[in-house]
Structures are given as structure tokens and as C-alpha cells.
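G., before I forget:
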Amino acid sequence: MSDSYTVGDERENEQDGAAADRADGRNVSTPDPVDETTGETTPSIQHIADADTVIEAADLTVHYGDVEALKPVNVRLPAQEVTAIIGPSGCGKSTFLRCINRMNDMVDAARVGGELRFRGKNVYDEDVDPVALRRKIGMVFQKPNPFPKSIYDNVAYGLEIQGYDGDMDARVEEALRGAALWDEVKDQLDESGLDLSGGQQQRLCIARAIAPDPEVILMDEPASALDPVATAKVEDLIDELAEEYTVVIVTHNMQQAARISDKTAVFLTGGQLVEFGETNRIFENPENQRVEDYITGKFG
Amino acid sequence: MSGSSDVADLTRAGSDIPAGRNLAVRGVFFACALLTVLTTFGIVVVLFDGALGFFREETLFGLLSGVLGGVLAGSPAEAWAALRTGLGTQVTVREFLFGVEWSPIIRPRSYGVLPLLWGTMLIVVGSALIAIPVGTATAIYLSEYADRRVRKVVKPTLEVLAGVPTIVYGFFALSFITPIIQRFFPGTGTFNVAAGAIVVGVMIIPMVSSLSEDAMSAVPDELRNAAYGLGATKFEVSTDVVVPASLSGVMASYILAISRAIGETMAVTLAVGMQPNITLNPLEQAQTMTAYMVQIGISDVSVGSIGYQSLFAVGLLLFVMTLGMNLLSLWIKGRYQEAYR
């Protein structure tokens, strides 16, 4: 371990323990220790067994106009684990995340090449309806963005547009409990979501994302606008979410990635996925020199 | 403790900022602002005084000069007569506001403004029924659906529509809309409410669409993304998120458009006619408050006659209505902004 590596030992050990517990408890197949390298551009990508792959990128590229935002990405993200995507600003980590639920569609100039498979289906196929895709893949954004509606309506919205006609109250409560917000807001469900604090708003957004029970939850730097206390709460929550959902989280905060994730993908400048694998290994013993430099704070 | 020589000199005297220029600039700007305030004040005074003449037979100005003239001429009787005239009642406010017969020039005279108000309301309701749905849909299209190139063409085109002189809209109603109405409803006269309402509706569409689009574009993308991320369709994002979040601006645009329809003059004078009429049949002719004012303004009624005075009373009522609408729009804007920001 390098001198400048700033994650405290205690925390690291915690993280080790948690990851080990989880792997043991849920029979997640561990990545093949033998490197299946996929060409020169992505030398350190560990592959996982197909059965556990939820999201798979195959030569996925993104261009904004003439600018190449993402060099061909090949990676498989495992089910029911937290995958952290880290990297310096402008490295394409958010771009990659937004490919997964096709939020890049909203950017006029964005062009996507290659394939991004969700449960084996290329989401960029002609016959894919992005609306249907996004109903299976929830998203939490950088800045808390509750609708200017009541807390209840915020959580219920996803279910409403999907035409859910079951016990809405129960689902709202379940989602709020899932987001560790129920006890704080159960007496003010009719009040505006905007009246909550920033951290509560972000947990409300998480409740909103999990209410329709998606398979995957994408998080784009969900704690970057929060204070340390609220950040800790959101991180705890992410840990719990991974028991039910596949979580892919973009963060610029390496300690956070080390604390909460099982797998880590490192993007570096130029939109290149440089290394992917077990979080512990990436942080303790990265294969790629640039990744090591980045993680140890030599740049980025 | 440091000596005074170490203290930074931040006083104006110690700098090279000219003191006088600031004051002069401030003075010029203040004078410009004052000009509009004074003009508004002058208009309000003239309107009120003129309207007073309608109800009291004599304006306040006329009353004062009459009394003063009598006193100066040493004739108390003359001053008394002027005072009596000035304080007498020509038309009661009640008759004006609730009377259903408007004929201030032709005998038997009656001074109920309701037929004119009714004509104005028919235009307002009719044009709002056209402009609000079409304008709102246009705004949603421009803000949420249209790609940049389409918006670049459509938005300026709409604003051209807003720049067409209203008299041209009047011709358009007479020469284009009315003939079409007559084809479907033979027997419809040259002047009819429907043509006026349609043409005013078209006229105020840009107001609704442009102001609403501004409000919708100002809705932060984070809110849209939140809904898209949940699997909302474009339509759901528009109706569930964008419109509610921009409601204050959208409502304000409706009210400003309605206010414009109330005050609209030339097009309705040409299209709707000059016949005060309380009717629900849009194929009949009617007369709006504004059209009446045009009629009297270009007629040969003499200054000081009741026909002349009625201009001010109707004008004052119009002013109160549009002022009320503008205040309402401000209130709505402030109120909803609080709830949504």
C-alpha cells in the first residue's frame, strides 16, 4: 500500500469484512482470478460468470459530436452487488452510467456505438423502448431532485405512471422504509418533498427510485451535494440496497468507493475503462500503473 | 495596534472615483422612471375626473372652475348653481354597472354598461377557449418535444404573429374568417362575435405560448431527468412535471393574454360590430367596451355631452379590469413561486 493512500486502516478492514460476508452469504461467484484480457485497451478487466451478469458493455462507445467521450468499453457488472465507477472529472464515468438506462438519449449530440446489454438484451436495439428500460433501472442523481409534490406523491409517482393499482400506501411505506426515511417523515407525508433537508431529499429520491422495484439502481454521485452526516446515511443505505438490488454508483470520492462497493471500475482521462475488479484488489494492488497513480493521489 | 498611516484609506475622498458622476447618472435614471410614473398618474387622474363628469354631470375640474368663476364674478347664485350641478347625480353607479340597456346617445337614453361588458366577455371567453389550449400545447411542444432546429424557426414565427398590427387581424376576420363562418352558417351577418373571438384568440396565442414556453424552459432539467429516470414518457414528463413546476408562469401568461383580449380594440371593432347586445349566440353582432369607445371617439358627439363623458366611464371600467388582471397575474406569480422553488 502506498504512503499517500488515505483511507484509514480501520475503515478498510471494515470494508474487507463486509465484502467477504456478503460474498459468502449470497453465493456470488467470485471473479475468475485468471485474467481474461480483452485486448490492449482494457488490460485488466476481470470477467464474471454470465449468470450473474446484469449489465454488459461490449465495445460500447459514446461520442458527443466529434468528441469521443467513451473509448470502447467491455465490462460485465454483477447482480446484487455494488459496483463503483471512479475516475477523475471528464473521464466518462457518468457518460457510461447514463448509457445503461439510455439517459444519453436526451442529449441531442450524443451517439452511442457498440452494445450495452441488460440481461442479455442490447438496450440500443431498434425495438427497445427506453421508457420500458427505465422502469427496470432506477436512477438517483447528483443533486437531490424531488418533484415539487408531496412526499407521498414523490414516492408513488413511478408506480402511478406504471399503472400500479395495488396497495399504494403499503408500497410507499415500504419504499420509504427501504430508504431509511420512514421514521422521519411518516407524519408529514402530505408535505412537500422540498421541505426536507438535503440528505432527506436524497433519501426521498432513493425511495422514489426503489418504489417501482427496479432490478438495477444507478447512482450518479449521490452524496456529492450532501454534508458528511447525510453522506454517511446514504452510504449505509447503499449497503442495504445491495441486498435486493444491483447498484452501480459513480463517485469521485475514492474513499467512498472503497467503503461501499464490491467491485470497482476505474475510468481514466480519455474515456477509457482501465481497470475493473474486486474493490479490495483495485485499491490494494492495482495492476495498472496509471490506476495506482490515480488511487494513490498522484494525479486526478 | 497599528498607526493610522497603516489603515487602508477606503473613503471616497481618498480615491479617484468621481463623486458627482454617480449622482448625475442616478438623477437621469430617476427622471426616466419618474416620467412613466407621472404619465400613469396623469392618465388615472384624467380617467377618474372624466368618469366623475359622467356620474356627477360635471368633472371635479369643471366644478371647481365653475364655483371659482361664480365667486370671482361676485355672483353667489352662479357659484351655487355650479356647485349644485357638480354635486348632482346624472347617472348612478348602480345604473351604470347593472343596467342592461346601453344607449347614451340615442333617446330614450339609458346607461347600463352590461351589454358592452357582455360583448367584451364573449370575446374574452371565446378567445381564451382558443388561445389557452392551443398556446399551452404549442409551449409544451416547443419546450419539450421540438428539436432545436424546429424551435429556432417556430418561435420567431410565433413572435411575428404577435407583431401583426391588430387592424390587420380585423381585416383578416372580415375577409377570411367571417366568409368561412357564413359558409357553414348561412345568414350570419358581416359582423359577428365568433369571428372576433377567433381572431383575438389567434392574436393572443403567441402571448400564451411564448410566455409559457419561457416558464417551462426554466424548469430545471434535474426534474425532467428524475421523471425520465422513473420511466415516464415525454407526455408524462410534460404534464406531471413541467407544467406543474412552471404553473406560475403559465397562469401569468393566461392572465396577461386575457388582459390583452379585454383591451383589444381594432380587430373587434371591425369584426364584431357596433351593436350592444346581450346574447349567447356567437353568430350575432355585439359591441365591446373598446369598440364603443372607438365609435364615440370618431363620432361627432360634442365635448362635455354625456356621450363624451361616457367614454371616460367605460374607459375607467376597462382600466380597472386590466389593472385587476395584471395584479392577479403578479399575485399568482409570487404565490406559486413560493410553493415551487
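Chain A has one domain: 9-28+36-295. Confidence is low (pLDDT under 50) at residues 1-43 of chain A.

More on Monday.
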